[in-house]
C-alpha cells in the first residue's frame, strides 16, 4: 500500500511539472500571434489603399494624385485597425 501511494505522488509530480512546462511555452506563441495579427492589420490597410489608388489612377488618368491620397487613407485605416486590435488585446484601455 505504501508503494502505491509513493507511485501515485510521483505520477502527480510529473503531471504538475508537465503542466508548468506547457504554460511556460504558451506565452511566446500568444505574443507571436498578436504580433502577426497587428502586422496583417497594418499591411492590409496600406495594401488596399495602394491598390485602390492605382486602379482609380488608371481609370481617371490622374497618375500620382489618387495613389498618394489612397496611400495616406490606407495608412490611416491600417493604423486605426491596428489600434483596435491592440485595444482588443487590452494593451490600451
Commentary on this structure:
By secondary structure, the chain is an all-alpha fold. The chain has a domain at 41-93. It contains two helices and no strands. The longest helix has 59 residues, at 2-60.
Query: Care to count the β-strands?
Result: 0
Spell the H/E element sequence.
HH
Please outline the major beta sheet: none
Radius of gyration: 25 Å
Helix content: over 70%
Determine the mean pLDDT: 87
Beta fraction of the residues? under 5%
**Principal-axis shape:** rod-shaped
- Spans of 5+ residues with little confidence (pLDDT < 50)? none
For the record, give the distance between the C-alpha atoms at the N and C termini, rounded to a whole number.
56 Å
Number of helices: 2
Estimated structural class: mainly alpha
Structural topology:
Layout: H1 2-60, H2 63-88
Helix pairs in contact: 1-2
Can you give me a brief rundown of this structure?
With 93 residues, the chain is mostly helical.
Keywords:
93 residues, 0% strand, 91% helix, single chain, mainly alpha
Amino acid at each position: 500500500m505504501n508503494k502505491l501511494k509513493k507511485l501515485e505522488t510521483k505520477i502527480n509530480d510529473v503531471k504538475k511539472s508537465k503542466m508548468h512546462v506547457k504554460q511556460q511555452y504558451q506565452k511566446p506563441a500568444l505574443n507571436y500571434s498578436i504580433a502577426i495579427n497587428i502586422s496583417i492589420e497594418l499591411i492590409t490597410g496600406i495594401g488596399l489603399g495602394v491598390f485602390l489608388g492605382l486602379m482609380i489612377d488608371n481609370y481617371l488618368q490622374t497618375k500620382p494624385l489618387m495613389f498618394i491620397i489612397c496611400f495616406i487613407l490606407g495608412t490611416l485605416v491600417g493604423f486605426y485597425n491596428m489600434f483596435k486590435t491592440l485595444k482588443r488585446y487590452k494593451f490600451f484601455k
